[in-house]
Amino acid sequence: MIDFWQVHGIWFIIFMFIFPRLTLLFATVWGGPLWWIGLIFAPRLMVAILATFAYWHTNTILVVLTWIWALGGESTEKKVITVKRGKTR
Description:
Elements: H1 4-7, H2 10-18, H3 20-27, H4 33-41, H5 43-55, H6 60-88
């Protein structure tokens, strides 16, 4: 089993939090069409899914925090976009 802290450090978490698309692009292995769809449309959810598969057994708390960040961030991002669109019309 792989432990998150054996592979990554605190800087990886900081960059993933601030720049999820760029970090995924440069720090993960590129996948097929689903990987690209996840990268473009929902990078936070993709991070949570990848974290769940790789680190659930060794870093459960970190994975749960990732899901909270993913679900909260995606919904907030979509809400901001909707509000800004409504103001421009």
